[in-house]
Amino acid sequence: MTQDKFSVAIVGGGLCGVACAVGLLKLGIKSTVFEATPKFGEVGAGVGLGPNALRALEGLGILDAVMARVEDKEFADRRSLFVSGHGTHETVYDYENSTEWTVADAGLAIHRAAFLDALVPLLDPQTTQFNKRCSSITTLPSGVHRIHFTDGTTHDADLVVGADGIRSTTRGAVVDESAADKLLQFTNTVAYRGLVPTEALVRDGLKTDLTKRLHMFLGIDKHLVVFPIKSGKIINIVAFSTDNSVPVGSVAVPGPWVQPVPQQELLDEYAGWGPDVRIMLNHMKTPSKWFIHALKPLDTFIRGRIALVGDAAHSMCPHLGSGVGQGFEDVYVLCQLLAHPSTNLSNLEDVLRAYDTVRRPRANMVLERSFRAGVIYESFGKPGYGLQDMEGHLAGIWEPIWRHDLSGDISTAMAALSAS
Ligand SMILES: Cc1cc2nc3c(=O)[nH]c(=O)nc-3n(C[C@H](O)[C@H](O)[C@H](O)COP(=O)(O)OP(=O)(O)OC[C@H]3O[C@@H](n4cnc5c(N)ncnc54)[C@H](O)[C@@H]3O)c2cc1C
């Protein structure tokens, strides 16, 4: 049985850590998940999953469990309709024109908590440990990694998966420790997030039908991403605002990266925007403000027998809604490699090198594209781009991410492993 060959510890029980534990278990590999918080939990927000993310979940054997939690209309069309944030919200670009994907092919939006609800029951509760915050990882002469926790305890594992998110501690064990702090930068963009009942928006005179499509409301230095969840009954709103007066990386955020803010701050940010934007913001009574940080592309996702997945490896701007999808691709490739018949304790480092060879270039490409997408969205209107420029920039923007041959990645990774 594969599980006897080596022990696996997963640091972080977020979307990627849990997907990894379940994916491994389905392949007969037991792991232990160490989560810093007292229980599994997710912020009350939606998350968009592109077709590539769904294919990765399918490969992991967990798509059905996730789909069982998705309400019909959550097949909201991911092919964005870009509209002006001002005036009468004229159409800027319809992504349907870019692609032959059907609605069903184009991904879905799901409430984050529903995703965990789908997967957590598939985990063995005995193999999850809560209140375990990793503080560092050391390596014993045998090559075994020792995970140190803030409560003074340790855990030894042959293989460590670092799935501890954007402020990852495990990243410090993979990249040059002195550089680790400088790799994560505030992007000068903040995001205000909220969930609003559709009914309330319509009652106040909303003209745009937000129940079927993902809408992007564009303007200079700001944009909103708006999509339906819960069968269109709830609208997920993320309002971004960027300070372009200072270079990226020059501002450090001293306080928490997520803060509750008075609604007035949000209303002031969008003063003068169009009527539907104002209606949406008026209903975000208790917005939370997220200081969007992103990693500079890492030179490696692995060291020894430690592999980073998800935001620990490639925390990116959310502008292409692709962060967790890249995390699921990581997890899918890693699980397949670990379950390969030729994988054993003695070649785990080769296995991780094969993982890094395939996953790092692609995830870093998506990371860089995600930053660039935000710049494009927030350049619409004078003195920025006009309609024709926008069409040129937006056409096909998701295609390299969505139309990707994941099984080809697995074959490439297997070939790299065989060659090592
Ligand atoms: C505003 C916004 C909108 C977004 N929208 C989308 C979208 O539509 N589509 C999309 O694909 N992505 C989106 N993303 C990105 C997506 O949320 C992340 O890529 C995803 O949550 C990463 O999952 P993860 O499991 O790697 O990390 P996380 O979900 O952050 O999980 C990390 C887990 O590790 C735990 N942990 C942290 N430190 C430690 C430690 N030291 N020891 C033990 N445990 C630890 C945490 O408690 C947490 O449970 C968005 C992000 C933002 C900010």
From TrEMBL:
Single GO MF annotation: oxidoreductase activity
Note whether Lipid metabolism occurs among the keywords. no
Superkingdom field: Eukaryota
Q: Which InterPro entries match?
A: FAD-bd, FAD/NAD-bd_sf, FAD_monoxygenase
Q: Where does the record place the FAD-binding domain?
A: 6-174, 298-370
User: Keyword Lipoprotein, does the record have it?
Assistant: no
Gene3D superfamilies, alphabetized: FAD/NAD(P)-binding domain
Q: Which UniProt keywords apply?
A: FAD, Flavoprotein, Membrane, Oxidoreductase, Transmembrane, Transmembrane helix
Q: Which GO terms describe its biological process?
A: secondary metabolite biosynthetic process
Q: Where are the transmembrane segments?
A: 6-25
Q: What is this protein called?
A: FAD/NAD-P-binding domain-containing protein
Q: Which organism is it from?
A: Roridomyces roridus
